[in-house]
Design goal:
It contains 41 helices and no strands. It is an all-alpha fold. The longest helix is centred in the N-terminal third of the chain and has 29 residues, at about 45-75.
Length: about 675
């Protein structure tokens, strides 16, 4: 682990990082209304001088940090010693010690290592140094020393666990070593080459039995790792090897298991073959799999857990194929089986068909805790009201039940709570209560060494290491300390950590920390310029950024999306040309101004494409406009807005749309404004 030289070189620019979002959205909007510019720092001269002095001191320390690294690289011990003295009170002093030891780690300076690990035990740097030392020792087979530095409570990396097993088998408790080796060996995937010596010793001593080899072969086939399974099969006796070959053949062509006489056999391995075949068949033809299940469950004793696991999987396959009849038949033929996802799919399928009696019926089948969630309270009330309207028979008891259900749902600060409030004609419930913390505790948390390191790393642009320090510093905090950490992060303008900490504390009512008015000046300016003829406003932009990244300006997804509004570089490039926003390379997306400008422009283009409908634009932002257009063609303007949203095929997109709509309402509230969950054109839309 190292801090990049680029990040350390940009000292002056780094001073701006923590102040990127200093102006609140409310201030920016007020400035726009009055026609004046957003105020900058207007502090008294004395305070300004103090800040300037502190800024200069910070720059000097950061320059010395860079000098210290150069001294380590050139092995200038005299210069390093002088700089270390001068940086005695600098939060990142431990990084100098870390770099110095890393430079000579191949020589294994045990005294320096021991002192460092003792001093920084339990910190991000201490644990990473331990990993570095273990890799060095394991690679050089210094296994006696390895046992000294290995901590089984902290080390979970497979490579290092294999080294540990090897070390134990040579110089420690061999029985304990072989128990660990068996655990490491019995998996459905290939293990790193560092495990091979331990595995070989275990096998030579008789650790690999036929039962263990069969078990790993089965795990490998279940995981789809057929090459590994073929390799393991070579360790089986001839009879088991034949059955292993049959298992792999069934994995490839599972409908073979419909030949019941062939597969109902006495040998225990056939049970594993059938289990794999049933699951594979279900993914191809759930009706055949259901038929096969009824036959095989009479011949093999499956546990309740195995039964429920298989039935849940078959039910999911029916749902994926939109086979409601098959799913209902599965439920009828499986007494005692219940799966929440299956039941919710049946409710949504009934909604799509506008079969309100079935909607109510399936909601009533849910367990009480699920039935009483705001989502299903709203939909049961909706189903009752639709049935009453269709029958022209307004039963007072049913009307009152619907009203009580809506009242319960409307107490929630959520998409469904806001829908219920709109139905009742009531104001939204926000339940905004600041976290119960004291200034003294906030100050104490901010002063923790790990927090100080995180702040300084953030200030010099080393966000990965800053997050790591933060996570270590907060991992064992109490609820009150976590809430205080959220306040600290908010003060730093580190909004995603503010959100993360308040959620980790499970305190959801501090809306200032959960829904910060982040990057307010940028958002207000961009939305004001782009949204003059569309529904784009600051609240929608904030809601999307909050949903996309929790306001982490350097966020990167597995799919390659980057920045606050999670734009793919390809989308950003195309959008930049249309928007006239300077954009040269993907890293530009980590600049909040660039990212918000491009994200808002793209969002605005989706609003134009989808008739100024925010929830369609939000769905397109998440799932892509082509998919949304296809979904609209499928529903053919037959569904009201709430049913269309509830039956979005992708659960991620469904939740995304609901969050963006409700977050927009909350951001209006946070800005001292009132905004409806839905605009008139959205509420009246047929989709």
């Amino acid at each position: 682990m190292s801090i990049g030289s680029t990040g350390l070189a940009l000292i002056s620019a780094a001073l701006l990082v923590s102040g990127l979002a200093a102006t609140s959205l409310a201030e920016a909007q007020q400035a726009a209304k009055s026609g004046r510019s957003t105020p900058t720092a207007a502090l008294p001269l004395k305070a300004e001088s103090k800040d300037t002095k502190a800024a200069r001191a910070a720059v000097a320390q950061r320059e010395k940090l860079q000098e210290a690294r150069q001294a380590i690289a050139s092995n200038d011990q005299r210069r390093l010693k002088r700089l270390r003295r001068e940086l005695e009170d600098y939060p990142l002093l431990p990084y100098i010690d870390y770099w110095a030891i890393s430079k000579k780690l191949s020589r294994l300076p045990y005294d320096d290592i021991d002192q460092f690990l003792e001093t920084y035990d339990g910190t991000a740097l201490g644990d990473w140094m331990r990993v570095r030392v273990l890799r060095e020792l394991g690679g050089r087979e210094r296994f006696k020393a390895y046992l000294k530095y290995y901590d089984p409570e902290k080390i979970r990396r497979t490579q290092l666990r294999c080294y540990y097993a090897d070390a134990l088998s040579r110089h420690g408790d061999k029985q304990q070593a072989y128990a660990l080796i068996e655990e490491l060996w019995t998996v459905g995937a290939s293990q790193p080459k560092e495990c091979d010596p331990a595995f070989s010793r275990w096998m030579r001593d008789g650790g690999l039995t036929q039962e263990r080899a069969w078990k790993r072969h089965t795990l490998a086939v279940r995981a789809g790792n057929l090459d590994l399974a073929d390799f393991i099969a070579r360790k089986l006796d001839s009879d088991r090897a034949k059955r292993a070959t049959l298992m792999r053949a069934v994995y490839r062509k599972p409908d073979q298991i419909m030949d019941y006489d062939r597969f109902i056999q006495q040998e225990p391995e056939y049970r594993d073959i059938i289990t794999i075949g049933l699951r594979r068949l279900a993914s191809q033809d759930p009706n055949k799999a259901s038929e096969a299940w009824q036959r095989y469950r009479a011949s093999y004793l499956f546990s309740d857990e195995e039964r429920d696991t298989f039935l849940r999987y078959v039910a999911l396959q029916f749902a994926r194929k939109d086979d409601q009849k098959g799913l209902e038949q599965l439920i009828k033929s499986s007494p005692g089986f219940f799966d929440l996802r299956t039941s919710e799919w049946l409710i949504r399928q009934s909604l799509r068909e506008m079969d309100w009696a079935q909607v109510e019926f399936w909601i009533d089948q849910l367990p009480e805790p699920d039935r009483n969630r705001d989502r299903w309270l709203y939909w049961k009330a909706r189903a009752i009201n639709e049935q009453l309207a269709d029958s022209n028979n307004n039963t007072p008891q049913r009307s009152e039940l619907s009203r009580q259900l809506l009242k319960s749902a409307a107490q929630e600060r959520s998409y469904y709570g806001f829908l219920a409030s709109d139905t009742l004609g009531k104001d939204y419930s926000f339940v905004d209560r600041p976290a119960p913390i004291t200034p003294e505790l906030v100050e104490k948390v901010a002063a923790l060494p790990g927090m100080q390191r995180a702040e300084e790393l953030q200030a010099i642009g080393e966000f990965y290491h800053a997050r790591r320090e933060w996570d270590y510093a907060t991992q064992d905090m109490t609820t009150e300390e976590l809430m205080s950490a959220g306040k600290v992060a908010s003060t730093w303008g580190w909004y995603h950590k503010s959100i993360q900490s308040i959620l980790a504390a499970d305190y959801l009512d501090d809306l200032e920390l959960r829904f910060p008015l982040a990057f307010g000046d940028i958002v207000s300016d961009v939305a004001g310029r782009m949204g003059k003829k569309t529904a784009l406003d600051s609240y929608l932009v904030l809601a999307v950024a909050r949903q996309e990244s929790h306001f982490s300006h350097d966020a990167k997804s597995h799919a390659g999306a980057m920045g606050l509004m999670q734009l793919l570089p390809s989308t950003a490039r195309a959008t930049a040309r249309k928007a006239g926003v300077p954009y040269r390379r993907s890293w530009d997306l980590l600049n909040p101004n660039t990212n918000i400008s491009l994200g808002a422009f793209y969002l605005n283009s989706l609003l134009k494409r989808f008739d100024n409908n925010r929830f369609l634009a939000a769905a397109a932002y998440n799932a892509g406009p082509t998919r949304v257009s296809r979904w609209l063609r499928d529903t053919d303007k037959k569904l009201p807005f709430d049913v269309w949203i509830e039956t979005i095929p992708y659960s991620e997109t469904r939740k995304y749309v609901q969050n963006v709509l409700s977050y927009s309402v909350i951001y209006a509230y946070r800005s001292g404004d009132k905004a409806p969950l839905l605009r008139k054109n959205e509420a009246e839309a047929k989709l």
